């Protein structure tokens, strides 16, 4: 590269290293034909020559295979999305000038443009992830030694296999590995760990940036690229090994710190003088298998931590708590996002933070008995009216839920999707307030044209849906009494509102007709959601309600509607508390999601689930890759599970103690940043 390399060729013995690699290539092949022998690892540890570093990174990481299998893809992405903008590209622009500003190449437009192209191409290639801070630091280091296309595919390998979840919106993988790192510190340096606990020093304050930037932003670049040399060859364990080595090297100074500030100052001084050090010890028993095991053991913990933080943030950012307590809001949050998770998994609801009409009904089903669809019946052994009643009940159910969904949406949801804030507001309208506010809300629910009047068709629709609802909440006889009074009293109040006097004989006859008209037969209540009660034919009842107002015109204002509701005890009780009480805000254990992906709202449920697979695949592929072998002579003994919980716990505790002792005692010397000086 025309801007030079951060490592001085003379001090790094560039010519000697290139000569050794040429010999290796001649004997064992190069690029895709290369065979890994023990000499390969030794040459990498000695230090890669600058001219070959990008090539060896690509080979040992496996990125070269991706590039050859996807020839031309990088250029196609750049051409396809040229000059297009997205949220990711906007974030990339903010970080371009913060990428290794000490390196001359990134003080020029040429270097910045190369970095921009790689980052934007990856963001378009993987839109679910897009761009995350720290990607720019890693890619800026890669581009010093590789072409743009090479850096693009190496970034793929890093994000998907070596560091899964590191560069997601919630940094799930990085947070998980911080817990893993803490476990390793606790095992290998118990005295230092105990000191951190006593002084409330958070390891992640210093160590999280190490992991996210792969040490590139922490130590001088000439040493950081040596970390990448070993990382691409041996896998993610090297990130943990180097972190442990740094803590060990500064152990005495760290034991004198009493707060996070002193903790950070120790490392600041250390990295400024790192060139004076010659050797660093490596923890050879920290293997990729151990990292994998600790990740599996602690992934639920980090998932719960992220979910808790996400929930608190979402609740704190609500503009209107709508008179709900924090506990009730938390329950609503769980029901809302649990529903979203399963809706996203099983249907066409693609939004990660908003729900469609189908998901809305699923959420209602977790809170109310009436939102579940009615059961269809086979004709054998049953009258055909069973299926007809079930279909009629389902139609009314869907009509009412459609109405509720539109009411929750309000007038400011152009995408016809319900967000959490609107859901909270809608539930508050139902659950809070007195009978008068409930009557106002119910009137608005059926005033579809928003003219301040309920017409004949609105009253019929209301009576059918109310008959269906009250049948669920009480019984069909009380439901029929309520809706017949609704019909008759609506006529009466409509006449009064027009200035006329209601004809008592006509009203009496109308009520008698509705009350005394019988349906052909009774059918089992399974036709309406299986509630176990006996029920008059639902289909015939709804037809009767439709026919009751065919020749009449009713115009009912809000004050008149209130009078109608308050003249019948069943109606009054329904509007006052029965409908609201049909909603149960109780968190059920059955609603706990079976996947970590659900928990991370706005992005979390997607990232968590993806990580679980990525971690497993990455370790499997690393164990099989010829360029990612565990060169340690020590192997961790697998733990055999026992059927007895007590026995299992005892064995596990014993083995952990053995592993701890081995980790404490077994050290190997490993020169990570500088070769040993040869004896003169």
Quick gist of this model?
The chain is mainly α and 680 residues long. It folds into 3 domains: 14-160, putative rabgap domain of human tbc1 domain family member 14 like domains (Helicase, Ruva Protein, domain 3), CATH 1.10.8; 163-319 and 605-680, Ypt/Rab-GAP domain of gyp1p, domain 3 (Cyclin A, domain 1); 369-581, no CATH class. It has helices at residues 14-28, 38-46, 50-61, 63-69, 73-80, 87-95, 109-125, 135-142, 148-162, 172-188, 190-199, 203-213, 221-234, 237-249, 251-254, 260-272, 288-316, 326-346, 357-365, 385-409, 420-431, 435-446, 456-473, 476-497, 504-516, 538-547, 558-566, 569-581, 604-624, 645-665; strands at 280-282, 522-524, 534-536, 668-670.
Strand order across the largest sheet: 1-4
What spatial form do the alpha-carbon principal axes imply? Answer: elongated
Number of strands: 4
- Uncertain runs are 376-382, 516-535, 590-616, 618-652, 655-680
> What class would the helix/strand composition place it in?
mainly alpha
Number of discrete helical segments: 30
Largest pleated sheet: 2 strands, antiparallel
Q: Any idea what the radius of gyration is?
A: 35 Å
Roughly what is the average pLDDT, rounded to an integer? Answer: 78
Highlighted features:
3 domains, elongated, Helicase, Ruva Protein, domain 3, 2% strand, 4 strands, Cyclin A, domain 1, 680 residues, two-stranded antiparallel ribbon
Question: Would you write up a description of this structure?
Answer:
- This protein is mainly α.
- The chain has three domains: 14-160, Helicase, Ruva Protein, domain 3 (Orthogonal Bundle), CATH 1.10.8.270; 163-319 and 605-680, Cyclin A, domain 1; 369-581, no CATH class.
- The protein has 30 helices and four strands.
- It has helices spanning 14-28, 38-46, 50-61, 63-69, 73-80, 87-95, 109-125, 135-142, 148-162, 172-188, 190-199, 203-213, 221-234, 237-249, 251-254, 260-272, 288-316, 326-346, 357-365, 385-409, 420-431, 435-446, 456-473, 476-497, 504-516, 538-547, 558-566, 569-581, 604-624, 645-665; strands spanning 280-282, 522-524, 534-536, 668-670.
- Strands 1-4 form a two-stranded antiparallel sheet. Strands 2-3 form a two-stranded antiparallel sheet.
- Helix 7 packs across helix 9 (148-162) and helix 22 (435-446) packs across helix 28.
- The chain is elongated and about 110 Å long.
- Mean pLDDT is 78; it is low at 376-382, 516-535, 590-616, 618-652 and 655-680.
């Amino acid at each position: 590269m025309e801007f030079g390399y951060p490592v001085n060729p003379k001090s790094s013995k560039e010519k000697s290293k290139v000569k050794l690699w040429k010999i290796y290539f001649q004997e064992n092949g190069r690029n895709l034909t290369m065979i890994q022998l023990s000499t390969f690892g030794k040459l990498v540890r000695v230090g890669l020559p600058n001219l070959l570093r990008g090539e060896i990174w690509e080979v040992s990481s496996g990125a070269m295979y991706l590039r050859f299998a996807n020839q031309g893809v990088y250029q196609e992405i750049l051409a396809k999305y040229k000059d297009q903008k997205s949220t990711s590209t906007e974030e990339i622009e903010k970080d371009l000038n913060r990428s290794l500003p000490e390196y001359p190449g990134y003080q020029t437009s040429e270097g910045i443009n190369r970095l921009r192209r790689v980052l934007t191409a990856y963001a378009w290639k993987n839109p679910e992830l897009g761009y995350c801070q720290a990607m720019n630091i890693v890619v800026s280091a890669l581009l010093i030694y590789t072409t743009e296309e090479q850096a693009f595919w190496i970034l793929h390998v890093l994000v998907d296999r070596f560091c899964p979840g590191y560069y997601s919106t919630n940094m799930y993988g990085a947070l998980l590995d911080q817990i893993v790192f803490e476990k390793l510190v606790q095992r290998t340096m118990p005295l230092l760990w105990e000191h951190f606990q006593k002084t409330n020093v958070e390891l992640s304050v210093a160590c999280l940036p190490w992991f996210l930037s792969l040490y590139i932003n922490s130590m001088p670049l000439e040493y950081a690229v040596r970390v990448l040399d070993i990382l691409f060859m041996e896998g993610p364990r090297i990130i943990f090994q180097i972190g442990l080595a740094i803590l060990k090297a500064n152990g005495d100074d760290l034991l004198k710190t009493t707060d996070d500030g002193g903790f950070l100052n120790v490392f600041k001084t250390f990295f400024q003088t790192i060139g004076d050090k010659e050797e660093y010890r490596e923890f050879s028993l920290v293997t990729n298998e151990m990292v994998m095991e600790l990740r599996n053991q602690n992934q639920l913990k980090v998932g719960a931590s992220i979910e808790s933080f996400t929930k608190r943030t979402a609740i704190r950012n609500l503009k209107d708590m709508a008179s709900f307590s924090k506990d009730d809001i938390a329950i609503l949050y769980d029901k809302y996002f649990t529903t979203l998770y399963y809706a996203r998994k099983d249907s066409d609801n693609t939004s990660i933070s908003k729900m469609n009409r189908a998901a809305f009904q699923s959420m209602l089903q977790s809170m109310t008995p009436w939102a579940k669809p009615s059961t269809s019946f086979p004709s054998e052994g049953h009258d055909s009216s069973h299926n007809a009643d079930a279909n009629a009940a389902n139609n009314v159910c869907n009509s009412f839920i459609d109405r509720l969904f539109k009411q929750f949406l309000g007038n400011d949801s152009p995408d016809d999707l319900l967000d959490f804030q609107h859901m909270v507001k809608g539930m508050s309208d139902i659950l809070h307030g007195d009978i008068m506010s409930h009557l106002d809300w119910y009137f608005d629910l059926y005033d579809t044209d928003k003219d301040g009047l309920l017409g004949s068709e609105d009253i019929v629709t209301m009576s059918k849906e109310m008959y269906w609802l009250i049948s669920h909440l009480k019984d069909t006889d009380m439901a029929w009494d309520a809706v017949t009074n609704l019909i008759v009293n609506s006529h009466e109040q409509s006449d009064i509102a027009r200035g006329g006097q209601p004809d008592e004989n006509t009203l009496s006859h109308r009520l008698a007709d509705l009350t005394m008209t019988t349906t052909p037969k009774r059918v089992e209540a399974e036709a309406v959601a299986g509630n176990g009660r006996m029920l008059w034919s639902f289909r015939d009842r709804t037809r009767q309600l439709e026919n009751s107002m065919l020749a009449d015109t009713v115009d009912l204002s809000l004050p008149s509607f209130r009078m109608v509701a308050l003249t019948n005890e069943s109606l009054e009780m329904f509007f006052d508390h029965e409908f609201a009480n049909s909603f149960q805000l109780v968190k059920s254990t059955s609603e706990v999601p079976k996947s970590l992906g659900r928990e991370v709202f706005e992005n979390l449920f997607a990232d968590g689930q993806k990580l679980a697979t990525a971690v497993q695949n990455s370790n499997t592929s690393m164990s099989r890759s010829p360029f990612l072998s565990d060169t340690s002579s020590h192997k961790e003994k697998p733990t055999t599970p026992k059927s007895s919980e007590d026995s299992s716990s005892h064995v596990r505790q014993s083995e952990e103690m053995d592993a701890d002792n081995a980790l404490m005692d077994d050290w190997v010397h490993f020169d990570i940043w500088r070769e040993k000086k040869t004896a003169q």
